Every structure is written in C-alpha cells, then in structure tokens.
Amino acid sequence: MIKNMIKTCSKCKTEKPATLEFFSAEKRIKSGLNSWCRDCRNNKVKDHHVTDNGKQQVATAVSKYNGSAKHKIARKRYEDKKKQINK
Ligand SMILES: [Zn+2]
Hints:
elongated, binds zinc ion, 2 domains, two-stranded antiparallel ribbon, alpha+beta, 4 strands
C-alpha cells in the first residue's frame, strides 16, 4: 500500500501527504510528484510578478509588444473603429 506516504516539500519543509492533492504531478521525477507542494508552487507564480525581476519581465514583454507590427495593426484597427463610431 502506498497510503499514508509523507513527502516533505523541498521549499517550505512542511510534511504533507504524498498525493496529487498536495503536490502537483511531475512526470520527469521518479515519484511522479513535484518536490514543491502546491502552495509553494502557487505562491511562486503569484509572487513572480511583484518581484523586480518579474516586473522587469512584464515591462519588457509590454514594450516589445508596443513596438511590434502586430500592435501597430491592432492600434490602426482601433483608430479606424473609433473614427467610424464618431461619424
Ligand atoms: Zn511547500
């Protein structure tokens, strides 16, 4: 029986049941479970955008998009639409 298996999260060091309820699936790892618990994984994703690094990445992505041809087309479409509405 694999019941009552306890896994220690390598991030918060909390012991939690080694089930998919507490750990997300990770196919590359032998146990099939991620070494970080779901809480830590969720926190990491959430926290990323408020870190300086995360902010920088978002800013870079936005500025890249703003100068892209795709954005220019979208911008033009928006302006055309606005003109039509104002008519
Ligand atoms: Zn954890």
